[in-house]
Amino acid sequence: MAETLIWLIAMPMAGAVATLLLPRQSTPIACVTAVAASLVAGTLLYAVSEQGSLSYEIGGWSAGLGIALRADGLSALLLMMTALVMLASSVYAGTYFTKAAARARFWPLWLLLWTSLNALLLSGDLFNLYVTLELLGLSAVALASFGGKFAAVQAALRYLLLGLLGSMMFLAGVSLIYAGYGTLDLATLTLAVEPEPVAWTALALMSAGLLLKTALFPLHFWLPPAHASASAPVSAVLSALVVKVAFYLLVRLWMDVFADLVTPAAAGLLGVMGAAAILWGSWQALRTERLKLLAAWSTVAQLGYLFLFFPVLLALPPGPARDTAFGGLVILALTHGLAKAGLFLAIGIIQQRSGHDRINELNGTAQRLPATTFAIALAGVALIGLPPSGAFLGKWQLLAGSFASGQWLWILVTIAGSLLAAAYIFRVLGHAFGNQSYPRHSVTIAREEWPALILTTLAVAGLGLAGAPVWNLLESGA
Amino acid sequence: MLTAHWLYGISGCLLLALGLRTALLHDMLLQRLIGINVMGAGVFLVLITVAYRGPGIAPDPVLHALVLTGIVVAVSATALALALARRLTAEQDDG
Description:
The complex is a heterodimer of chains A (about 475) and B (about 100). With about 475 residues, chain A is an all-alpha fold. Chain A has helices at about 5-20, 25-50, 75-95, 100-120, 125-145, 150-180, 185-190, 195-215, 225-230, 230-255, 265-285, 290-315, 320-355, 365-370, 370-385, 390-405, 410-430, 445-465, 470-475, and strands at about 55, 70. Chain A folds into 3 domains: about 1-120; about 125-240; about 265-478, no CATH class. Chain A is built from 19 helices and 2 strands. In chain A, helix 16 packs antiparallel against helix 17 (about 410-430). Chain A is globular and about 70 Å long. Chain B has about 100 residues and is mainly α. Chain B has a single domain (about 1-95), classed as Helix Hairpins (Orthogonal Bundle). In chain B, about 85% of the residues lie in helices and about 0% in strands. In chain B, helix 1 packs antiparallel against helix 2 and helix 2 (about 30-50) packs antiparallel against helix 3. The radius of gyration of chain B is 17 Å and the shape is elongated. The relative contact order of chain B is 0.12. The interface of A and B includes residues 131, 157, 165 and 167 of A.
């Protein structure tokens, strides 16, 4: 079963090379690769739930010398989310890019992005994490500039420079770690790390780099333009996955490897930044004129909720209470990934059909594109955190944890953020359901609209009603 | 030998700080890009200093590999940034 780990990286990579070499057949190749890689991700999820965490040493070289891959419950769940979002967006991209030449240039970068996402989630040492972070950054920037609109290239360039800055800070932290402890392997490091200046400085440098990449307020400024000006499938993946894996790495470092170093003050600082992100991101989403910018600002806000979990988790006693709350964090991240990807895909359809994404001119959208409007509404349910979405379970755990540890501020922020989210979602739906007296034919284009619908349905019904396996998996794969 | 070791390490940190300052405070793309590259050079210098294990002993290969990877990444990222910048100026001239 451990071989699935290497297949998850090899398969999209082989697909990337094949689409590059055979541009004429690139779309079928990419679709086959997407289906196959998703099946492997499903197999891995099943294997981790049965056997606990898995590891694989490439070429038989042991950790420290060779490349070690590891998958536990958390990474298996995120790999599955990556597969679902990438598969749905791949199907969507096949029709979104109408020109064959554009598709042929798109697929290699797309599959390379998938390769680096998988590799990052599976890496077990800081060296490979640095390499995969860079691969991810470069392919994400190339995709963000894809299409070549002036605004997109401009935003991609800023994204590249800030990403590079983040990587350099991360690498500086890695060099300190190696100087202090002589190893980059995360498992060895977990045992060796002690609360001393070198570890603190290294953690601060790595965290600063990752916070820049995950766009936590006030380091979020590059995100809205980059995510809003990219093409729809790319925006979906940037918002749902690329910022999420940098967050995953922060969770690994803060809650796993450097857990002994984290003080309540440091976790509280992340919480305050998260609270500011929720309020500022939601407020900007409410004020913006364009639908894609609304979705991008909502990503800034939703990432804030994930950071509220840091002080809450630290205040809870280790054991069942903390594990339950941690499950809430994971399910909130998964729900946001699926819902936000679905939202961006749905917005892409509206933008292509009506030629714009101005919120004030959405009148009649519900009549013309009923399925897409429904997908947006479902995504809204998940973003607000209404039951039965997975976000409801996640926010419930956040509130319960805050109550238990007496951190009232986070409760107020969560309530305010949810109300603001309801306001910006209903503003969109209000316009979309507005009446428009002329051409009243409705269109449903299955291949274009299914991906968004399936993703948002999974976020609302799948994760909400069948969320228990997430907790079981985190427990068995610990 | 110890002093030389520290000299390299401290100059690496200085380069890092200088590059970071330029990358954050300047608006011009080229200045920021060079700032990031200088910062990278600082990090690489620190890494090479850490890899040194004394005369007659082979330096740490893991860190050398890390530096090589870092250089490759820095070069390709710089190339990508310059390519994007060229596209921007080309469009600015057209429009």
